[in-house]
Known about the structure:
Elements: H1 11-15, H2 19-32, E1 40-44, H3 50-58, E2 63-68, H4 71-80, E3 85-88, E4 101-107, H5 116-126, E5 127-138, H6 146-154, H7 168-177, E6 181-194, H8 197-206, H9 210-216, H10 220-234, E7 242-254
Parallel strand pairs: 1-2, 1-4, 2-3, 4-5
Antiparallel strand pairs: 5-7, 6-7
Helix pairs in contact: 2-3, 6-10
Bound molecules: S-adenosylmethionine.
Amino acid sequence: MTTESRFYRDAEAYDSSTARWSEQLARELVPWLGVRRDARWLDVGCGTGVVSDAIMDLAWPGAVTGIDASEPYLEAARRKVPGARFELGDATALPFPDGSFEAVVCSLMLALVPDPAAAVGQMARVAAPGGVVGLAAWDGENYLQHEYWEAAQEVGAQGREPDPIAGGEDLVRLLGSAGLREAQTRLIQLTVTFDGFDDYWQTLLGRKGHITAHFESQPPARQAAIRETVRPRVERKPGAKVPVVASAWVAKARR
Ligand SMILES: C[S@@+](CC[C@H](N)C(=O)[O-])C[C@H]1O[C@@H](n2cnc3c(N)ncnc32)[C@H](O)[C@@H]1O
């Protein structure tokens, strides 16, 4: 299965970090798709159920199915959204017949799969005629935790690979290549405010994702240099609250 299984194991760490932004994103994305009541929804790369939860709250769905490659995340999703059905599976080989869903949504997963076009092709295949496919991805300039990677680069620590998807145009191109029509895109700004720099820093490293692995692989002196280079980028004055802004693109198109 094609997944970042190294990282996507700790659902609690995800929910206390990235999900604080992805919940805001899902609550913008779901209503923007303009899906009729009682539709059948598919949430691809559903993770801990953040988007499915927003669908339940905001879209009056007929049924919600989530699919993800991480069993621990699916367990968290089942607890969070008991009214939805969650299955283990690969986004590039969706185990559903053609035309099964009026709405297919995929938030913050495409940059993680080796072949995003294959994944969007599968989403288009399982969308019903007239149905909508909605995507979301971090902005390439102002992505989540860009302060960390900029600081790491500044102090000479290599390691960040550029995201294969950097903006709304990439999403629109993927939707068009999958044969979908009337694509639209929009940029959304998301802000999470931390009690202070330490709170922010602990959350950043508590994600147990790429950043944690990268940070832990650095020698202690460089770890300290990264931390102190990040600090003035996010902390306006010592002890002040730390608002962390990230931008994400959403895009949608019809089958
Ligand atoms: C950043 S999380 C996003 C989760 C959720 N959509 C949200 O908005 O909070 C990315 C998710 O994609 C899943 N994933 C990565 N590659 C996958 C694949 N090939 N098939 C299915 N899920 C995949 C991961 O397991 C993880 O749950």
